[in-house]
Write a sequence for this structure.
């Protein structure tokens, strides 16, 4: 008996005492992803306890919902093409030529990338509204015309606004791809007499064709998932997209079964598109041509250097200069549509926004609290998950990697529907609390955080950990004292990416908020309904200031430019 008692502790000592940590992280991930999606699928096919397809028949037979579906297809397709038309030439100019001011262009691209699309849509309402829009008033004054130059409340206006905040995804993908390809083939074609345009069309573009098609799919995915821009521009124009129609189904009384049935096709479409994109990127034919070791020589633009720069700056004016300028004007004006004179100048909008409007201060507190909490918990959770999958610690680690990236195919509105269904019933009654928004943000930002953490741990060789294990340290101690310090910069980047994502999130928040759990994006949306454009501008600029402060902090701490800007 004594011998058995002595053997039992020795077996305990041989066990991995860190196992509960890995298991808890895996269970938390499974709960975050599978619970809302499971309820979403179940409710879409259930009626009074029995299975049925009646909700799907009702969805696809409803002319209004059919029209919303068709509008979404049109929007996504043209946004994809427009994003390629803008992003591919700018990426080529930035990565392959002697374009002046390339660092400036990439810095502006970061500003465009982190600008919330719904805030850009608000700005373009003030710029190109058919009646009081700044550009239309300027056009009428110069030409004497009665009709507006542009009407932002139209399908073409919506495509334009969505595209100018979506093309940075294409730019980043193409520019990073071009940075990996050596210029040997391009130089050979030039020596054989091919012109610059011919070289680009016959050599460069075919080499990056998979990335171009992948960028198109990514732009389409962004357009499919957006709620804010369609809600601001499409609804006043009298038409819906899928996301705004799902939101409308939640107006009292909420039609959760219909919303679930309408959400599933959108979820399947985004999943299929992402799978196609992954297959395309997995077959990159240019990998054997170049690589990091190859030399990349700049193509001289000659006379076209400065016209090309002006073209790039004109694009950035549409996404950065004009929107930020009109927001600043509205924030400092008594009447935003009137000329900026001394009589029209005021700081009252700041006082009203921060001290008189009842929802603002609570929304700011809620947003920052949720941002900090989600970033801290999210950075820790995705770091554990990435560590588990990279080191293959538990069986089924591949499934964890798949689940961590799965939310990238779930549009925010669809996720919100699933969370609403899952957390408005026992045992997890979270609706009406900040908890449900925290779960939504944590789930939605999981793929970004996991991708960053996965890349970080891939760069840390496991031999360092093995040395610590040989010296007697447990896996958790090795992770805390060896791996975590080496991964610190990546973990900080993950924290910042998640925080920025929370600050600018609207699509899930608009369904899950209650009067006591409003966040800044929802308050901006409410202010638009009240016509308080000065307050929108103030709160929007505050949101941008917080976002850019985080970006600057991230780059100063980590000492790198996340869009790959070069000196």
């Amino acid at each position: 008996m004594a011998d058995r008692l002595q053997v039992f502790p020795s077996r305990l000592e041989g066990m991995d005492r860190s196992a509960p940590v890995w298991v808890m992280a895996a269970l938390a991930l499974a709960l975050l992803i599978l619970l809302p999606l499971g309820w979403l699928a179940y409710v879409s096919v259930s009626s009074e306890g029995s299975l049925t397809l009646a909700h799907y028949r009702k969805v696809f037979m409803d002319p209004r919902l059919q029209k919303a579906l068709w509008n979404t297809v049109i929007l996504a397709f043209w946004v994809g093409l427009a994003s390629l038309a803008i992003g591919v030439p700018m990426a080529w100019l930035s990565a392959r030529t002697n374009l002046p001011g390339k660092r400036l262009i990439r810095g502006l691209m970061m500003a465009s990338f982190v600008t919330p699309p719904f805030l850009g849509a608000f700005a373009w309402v003030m710029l190109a509204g058919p009646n009081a829009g700044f550009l239309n008033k300027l056009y009428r004054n110069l030409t004497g015309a009665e009709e507006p130059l542009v009407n932002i409340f139209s399908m073409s206006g919506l495509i334009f606004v969505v595209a100018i905040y979506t093309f940075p995804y294409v730019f980043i993908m193409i520019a990073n791809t071009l940075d990996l390809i050596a210029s040997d083939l391009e130089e050979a074609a030039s020596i054989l007499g091919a012109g610059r345009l011919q070289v680009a069309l016959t050599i460069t573009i075919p080499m990056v064709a998979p990335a171009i098609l992948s960028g198109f799919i990514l732009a389409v995915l962004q357009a499919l998932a957006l709620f804010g821009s369609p809600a601001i521009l499409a609804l006043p124009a009298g038409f819906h997209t899928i996301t705004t129609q799902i939101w409308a189904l939640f107006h009292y009384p909420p039609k959760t079964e219909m919303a679930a049935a309408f959400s599933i096709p959108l979820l399947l479409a985004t999943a299929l598109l992402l799978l196609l994109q992954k297959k395309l990127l997995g077959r990159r034919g240019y990998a054997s041509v170049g690589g990091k070791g190859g030399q990349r020589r700049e193509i001289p633009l000659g006379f076209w250097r400065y016209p090309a720069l002006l073209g790039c700056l004109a694009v950035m004016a549409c996404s950065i200069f004009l929107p930020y300028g009109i927001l600043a004007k509205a924030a400092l004006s008594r009447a935003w549509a009137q000329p900026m004179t001394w009589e029209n100048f005021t700081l009252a909008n700041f006082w009203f926004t921060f001290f008189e409007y009842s929802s603002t201060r609570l929304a700011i507190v809620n947003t920052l609290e949720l941002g900090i909490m989600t970033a801290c918990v999210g950075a820790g959770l995705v770091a554990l998950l990435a560590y588990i999958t990279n080191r293959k610690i538990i069986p089924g680690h591949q499934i964890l990697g798949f689940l961590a990236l799965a939310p990238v195919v779930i549009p925010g509105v669809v996720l919100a529907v699933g969370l609403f269904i899952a957390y408005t019933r026992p045992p997890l009654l979270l609706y009406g609390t900040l908890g449900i928004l925290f779960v939504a943000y944590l789930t939605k930002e999981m793929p970004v955080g996991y991708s960053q953490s996965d890349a970080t741990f891939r760069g840390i060789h496991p031999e360092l950990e093995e040395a610590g294990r040989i010296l007697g340290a447990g896996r958790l101690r090795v992770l805390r004292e060896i791996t975590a310090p080496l991964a610190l910069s990546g973990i900080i980047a993950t924290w910042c990416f998640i925080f920025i994502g929370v600050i600018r999130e609207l699509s899930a928040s608009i369904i899950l908020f209650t009067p006591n759990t409003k966040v800044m994006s929802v308050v901006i949306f409410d202010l638009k309904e009240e016509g308080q454009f000065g307050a929108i501008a103030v709160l929007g600029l505050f949101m941008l200031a917080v976002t850019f402060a985080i970006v600057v902090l991230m780059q100063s701490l980590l000492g790198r430019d996340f869009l790959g800007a070069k000196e």
The first helix runs from residue 2 to 14. Residues 1-15, 284-293, 563-567 have pLDDT under 50 and may be disordered.
